[in-house]
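Re: [help] complex structure
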Amino acid sequence: MSWTDERVETLKRMWGEGQSASQIAKELGGVTRNAVIGKVHRLGLSNRAGAASAEPATAVVPATEVAPAVIDKPVSAFEDKPHMRTESATPARKPKPDPDAVEVEELDENGIPISAARRAIIPAGQPLPPQPSANEISPEALAKVNEVEKTAKRIGLMELTEKTCKWPVGDPATPDFWFCGLPSQQGKPYCEAHVGVAFQPMSSRRDRRR
DNA sequence: CCCTGATTCGC
DNA sequence: GCGAATCAGG
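Output below.
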């Protein structure tokens, strides 16, 4: 494999987005993370500058003109619950007051309106797994989660990043809705505790039932 | 041990 | 220019 313009472009974009070298290598295929890092250095962009905030909202982002952080490991599970708009998220201040009072919503396959804003921040992707019913989870894992949810960071939609647990808590239709936000596991969308309830080995599932 | 980026240096 | 090997660190 060689560094075609296209591949370099992808490299630049992903590096700018704060993706790790190995993630980029995986995406590109045919290269190792070493190759990616080497290229990054040769391109002179080893300093992760000129990129959008890799750090979450609480950071010292110059409030001037912050584009809404694009979430790229999407949380698509909340398929268009009408109530679940972005209100509860960080009030990043509206770019445009929307001159026309009438907002023309696009419709999805089911004829459900999709706000353009929502589509922008929640691209398609792996859906969240359904919340498992309580009796399907090991008591230990459940207890762990309950504990974790007390100490969770309770972040909003906009604060989600690659590195934050995206486990949703509460009812999206409620102001009490938030995401766990603790550090996520390597390559997983959730923190350790939530990985525990989200991904269960087949064997343990089988063992538990019956 | 998993991972991260940084550097070196033979190709 | 490329990237494997290595280093240094979390």
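Helices of chain A lie at 5-16, 21-28, 33-42, 116-121, 139-151, 192-198, 202-208.
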